[in-house]
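Our consortium's second objective concerns turning raw sequence data into structural hypotheses that experimental partners can test. To show how far this objective has progressed, the report includes one record in full. It was chosen at random from the queue rather than selected for favorable results. The single chain below, 141 residues long, was entered without modification.
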Amino acid sequence: MKFKTKVDWFIHLSFAIMPITNIMLIIMFISSPTVINGVCASIFLITNIIIMPWWFNTYYILEESELLIKVGGFGKGKRIAYSDITSVGETRNPLASAALSMDRIEIKFRDGKTKSFTNVIYISPKEKQEFLKLLDEKRNK
């Protein structure tokens, strides 16, 4: 089952401001084509292209035997076998993660290859309680 990420208001605000700022920088560059204006507009445009997919393409899928965590439109995503998950809990930890909200779930898991290292990832599904219930069912199969 697929769960979209929950997005906090300040993330919505920052993603809404980015294109507006970029348009302003481009207008500045067109009206005064200096090197510094061109560099600023280019850097901001590239940043928009890289960051905007996070807003639209961050989600989590509970598959048959593993959890798929997908952030943005890049890569295959992070796959975590249910058997490798050691603990799951709610948190508001602000560390960088695959979450666009502070209303998060902390997932601790063993490294799939060595089974010796514990990793942590934070996610923020919109339907958090339903996600936790289904994840628990999948882990206990």
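The partners drew two points from this record. The CA atoms of residues 93 and 102 lie 7 Å apart. The two ends are 16 Å apart (CA to CA). Both points have been shared with the crystallography group to help prioritize constructs.
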